[in-house]
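Subgroup meeting minutes
Present: P.N., E.W., G.H.
Scribe: E.W.

1. P.N. recapped why we're keeping a running log of single-chain structure predictions: easier to compare across weeks, and new members can see raw inputs and outputs side by side.
2. G.H. added today's entry (166 aa).
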Amino acid sequence: MGLSVAEVQAREERVPSLVERLTSAMAMGSQEWMSPIADAKRPTDEQLIEVTKHIIEEAILRGPLVVVGRGTWEMLAEREDTLHVFCYAPRKALIARTMKREGIGAEEAARLVDETNKQRDQWVRLHWERDRRALENYDLSVNTERLGIEGSAQLIVSAAKSRFKL
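Output recorded in log:
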């Protein structure tokens, strides 16, 4: 789609701002005065989702894979050969991890954690009309604070081996 990795990362699981939605609507509606915007028009979220789905389906044909986020539990909901896992941690743990990973203070980390979770929640509601945290979306939910990242990964691998009789 001609997007850089940074552009995709900036848009992942994030609801477009009002300005982005208005610009997109105007670019589609009036070619005369908006032609520079229309020429530089980025793909819609729906187009990105569709491309992501095709890429994931192609990757599945090559063999087992792990996909994190991107609404794949919805994209692959009808497949029997999946294991949908929700990894979570209490807010306090997420803030501490963010502080360490990003090298920022507690206040900025709290803002980042809250904004990221808000954007993810809105993204799923907007595109799939579901609650991303709803238990019925997942086969397994893992508390990464309690088990740690390594312990969580081991549990998920064990669940996958059991589920797929590996």
